[in-house]
Amino acid sequence: MTETDLRNLLVELAASLFRRGYSVGSAGNISVRLPDGYLITPTNSSLGWLEPHRISKLNTNWDHISGDRPSKEIFMHRAVLDTRPEAGAVVHLHSTYATAISCLSHGTDTQLIPPLTPYFVMRVGRHLPIIPYYRPGDSAMEQDIRAAAHKCSAMLLANHGSVVSGKTLREAVFAAEELEEAAKLSLLLRNQMMRGLSEEQIDDLLLTFGNP
Questions:
Q1: Residues belonging to the active site
Q2: Which of 20, 29, 34, 150 has the fewest CB atoms nearer than 10 Å to its CB?
Q3: How far apart are alpha carbons 212 and 206 in whole angstroms?
Q4: What is the reported pTM?
């Protein structure tokens, strides 16, 4: 896809997320890898009202070169895209159920969203780590995101929301949507006798469809 195509697709998918309540106000941001740099949604912009020509463009050193001023959480996208060269896009959302899960008390080894469905494993992966709380915009979280991104394509930020990557922009958006649905299922089934996927079933899915 050309850069123009990606700008238009970013606007289209972001608006879809906004209309369906995956983001509200100016919450959330999205980035896309380009051959000569990156696109990222501007700071304080709404995913529902983006304009293609105003999307921020950064060079390969993450310097702002055109468009509106980039999101203050640029370090979050840099941490994932630098660490995962196969990733083509990152979606950060404050969607309701994933954010609710991120607010639960947990132990350091707790799997806050268990692998209940094959689509969670296929689009999100086996594990979903949670990053300790940092205030929004605090670049100190970058080191923790980098550490998590070495092993996982998606993660939760404590009391904040989700960060999800994918090979393409569409795949990243689909994975973020799947994570939100998995969070919803997890909360609906909390304190019930859940039947999750076995390790053998998870291995089979990853072997058949690949590890996201």
A1: 73, 119
A2: 150
A3: 8
A4: 0.94
